[in-house]
């Protein structure tokens, strides 16, 4: 007997997500939605309005705004050439530059300052590790057109209020002032002179940055250089009266609102566009990736992007880091669960059951409907359906038995009271009893 040839095609190789770009699956996605809802609610209280900018921007936008010698521009941007237009494009590594570009392009400051916020994915080509991903997500708040220290303080208070709303603890605020360009130039000269006196002790990265971006050397994590950094001239000592007064005003407002802070004279942030106030919210609970929110004033960026000079200040927080910190503190919100799970013993009651389920949903009740299992016959056994109902986390099971349905009734069974109490409810009085099914009741 001849063997029959197997003509089935081989199964294609399984495709995986790009390393460092993660799927967000239920129930984790529900925690993201919970955090996003908190952000939307809080931003509205502070009169900040949502802005949504493209994920892809012209590469020169980031080179011009972030600085050619920053790590982001030199090493981390996902850039490519648009083959159709021969245009250099980049997946946004941060959102402030894009927000400023949009404000300038659409002349949004013509009638006064704007308070804006955003949330969405950013992209940086770096080695994935705890709290650092190639696709990561940020929430940011930007206030453009306001020069006063009170707006710096307002933004810090906004972030502080978010920690309170989320129940976050063990987060400390560090602040500093980078002064104005002429003050930084004087400090830069003194800093270079100091570092040149210790040139033999500088690592390769510090030597490379010595004359291009010496301020970033102060942010080094190299233990062998800490003594040199600690002995370096402090930018705070080069501030003039106006810069000092601005910084003092920020501190005064924070203190008046009971917000604790410490001055960190080595805090410089990673982008070239900052001036005056800079700040970070830091925790020790996430190891080396302890900064969960950072920002500052960037009064010269609007002009750099091609607009009329205008002051601005803002911050961004990492959603992944905030959620991880919530988990570290056992404050992660539970995944969303339905109010009720509809158990449908047989196909015959499906029309009535689905009509009832839809009416309940219109009343604001969250209902998960049981569906026929793949490869099986009918709707599946009652035992298996109750297992799924229990696993869903629902408070109640709605049992659409044939006999009850013929009488216009449904059995409502409690899944969380420990005794499984149940009662029949008439289907024609949904509006009267649907509220008892909701988790909030």
From TrEMBL:
Main subcellular location: cytoplasm
Q: What is this protein called?
A: Histidine--tRNA ligase
Q: Which NCBIfam families match?
A: hisS
Q: Keywords for this entry?
A: Aminoacyl-tRNA synthetase, ATP-binding, Cytoplasm, Ligase, Nucleotide-binding, Protein biosynthesis
- Pfam families associated with the record: HGTP_anticodon, tRNA-synt_His
- Write out the annotated subcellular location: Cytoplasm
User: Which Enzyme Commission number(s) are on file for it?
Assistant: 6.1.1.21
Keyword check for Cytoplasm: yes
**So what does this thing catalyse?**
tRNA(His) + L-histidine + ATP = L-histidyl-tRNA(His) + AMP + diphosphate + H(+)
Q: Which PROSITE patterns match?
A: AA_TRNA_LIGASE_II
Where do the Aminoacyl-transfer RNA synthetases class-II family profile domain residues begin and end? 1-345
To which protein family does this belong? Belongs to the class-II aminoacyl-tRNA synthetase family.
Tell me if Magnesium is a UniProt keyword of this record.
no
Q: Give the Gene Ontology MF terms in alphabetical order.
A: histidine-tRNA ligase activity
Q: Which organism is it from?
A: Verminephrobacter aporrectodeae subsp. tuberculatae
Domain of life the protein comes from: Bacteria
**Subunit structure as annotated in this protein's UniProt entry:** Homodimer.
Q: What class of enzyme is it?
A: ligase
